[in-house]
Design the sequence.
């Protein structure tokens, strides 16, 4: 009888404890881990780099489209390490969500985290599409035995913002081909081309122009602003070198290619390693804010053993012409003014931070 009494007491205590244990386990499963911080720089092997653009999709909201794009990118990479992602987002979704999804996805796969640039564009060339990803991938095999050529965007403008962009794209591609010839490369060597446009109306005509010249390249087309002040087509490219550059780095302004003040139009790179940065944004709209962004970028580069003078290509994403002018004014204080990097500067719709005036990401050679 005494044994039965003890058994009853034990069972009663277990029953009383069970809801508390269940509640504790439920609380534990509801705890969310913060996404891991993405790195500020990564290093890649120049001769193994490949460049990809994810297909557009109109399925679901932004989060689903980002997940689908990351899956597509993983298939494209075929086991290579994804070093850099440049995400262009259109629509009203929370742009910052992209950063969390990239971190969660790569952490879940137990893969090294990439650097990320995140920019809001004016539109993408598919109704309902909200995101497109460009990526730099380090392949397992050598892909570029002679090195790479980074070509600045060749911008063609018209003062009337509603002018068609296809004729401007023809001018941009013609200038790009001239630059490519100076590199000793051919259209078949172009690995990726990105065309920044003032309008996506009749984008099929722009695709036709570009595809006819670079059928083997990964291609990306996007509208930079919803309401641009002027019409523009600015196409930039990365190509495989066919001949030895003659030096680890050569920065050139080829004859016949319109020169951009304070920038080179072409960077030839045979150095074995390249450093890719995430974007650094200014917080505010004054010159001192621009200067602080460059200072943070310089610190990021120094952590990878390089400096701003090692930069061979820069992407700038200002939100106004006034800020673009500030960027070009302050850039020589940090970059090698005697040998400025190749670069692309176009005005964009927005950035993840509400008070950001511009953002910058760069590619630098690692000695």
Sequence:
């Amino acid at each position: 009888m005494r044994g039965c009494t003890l058994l009853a007491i034990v069972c009663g205590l277990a029953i009383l404890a069970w809801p508390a244990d269940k509640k504790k386990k439920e609380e534990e499963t509801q705890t969310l881990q913060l996404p891991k911080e993405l790195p500020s720089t990564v290093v890649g092997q120049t001769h193994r780099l490949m460049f990809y653009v994810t297909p557009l999709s109109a399925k679901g909201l932004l989060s689903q489209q980002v997940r689908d794009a990351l899956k597509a990118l993983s298939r494209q990479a075929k086991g290579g390490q994804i070093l850099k992602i440049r995400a262009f987002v259109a629509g009203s979704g929370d742009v910052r969500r992209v950063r969390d999804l990239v971190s969660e996805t790569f952490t879940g796969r137990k893969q090294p985290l990439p650097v990320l640039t995140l920019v809001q564009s004016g539109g993408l060339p598919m109704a309902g599409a909200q995101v497109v990803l460009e990526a730099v991938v380090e392949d397992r095999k050598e892909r570029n035995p002679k090195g790479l050529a980074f070509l600045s965007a060749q911008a063609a403008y018209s003062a009337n913002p509603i002018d068609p962009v296809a004729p401007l794209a023809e001018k941009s591609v013609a200038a790009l081909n001239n630059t490519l010839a100076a590199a000793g490369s051919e259209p078949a060597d172009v690995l990726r081309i990105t065309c920044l446009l003032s309008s996506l109306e009749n984008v099929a005509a722009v695709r036709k122009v570009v595809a006819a010249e670079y059928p083997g390249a990964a291609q990306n087309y996007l509208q930079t602003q919803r309401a641009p002040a002027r019409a523009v087509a600015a196409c930039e490219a990365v190509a495989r070198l066919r001949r030895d550059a003659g030096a680890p780095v050569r920065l050139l302004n080829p004859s016949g290619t319109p020169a951009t003040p304070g920038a080179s139009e072409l960077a030839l790179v045979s150095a074995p390693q390249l450093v890719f940065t995430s974007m650094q944004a200014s917080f505010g709209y004054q010159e001192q804010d621009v200067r602080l962004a460059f200072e943070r970028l310089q610190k990021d580069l120094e952590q990878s053993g390089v400096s701003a003078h090692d930069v061979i290509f820069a992407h700038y994403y200002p939100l106004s012409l006034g800020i673009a002018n500030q960027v070009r004014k302050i850039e020589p204080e940090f970059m090698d003014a005697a040998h400025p990097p190749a670069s692309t500067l176009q005005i964009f719709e927005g950035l993840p931070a509400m008070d950001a005036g511009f953002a910058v990401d760069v590619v630098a050679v690692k000695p």
Observations:
- The mean pLDDT is 91.
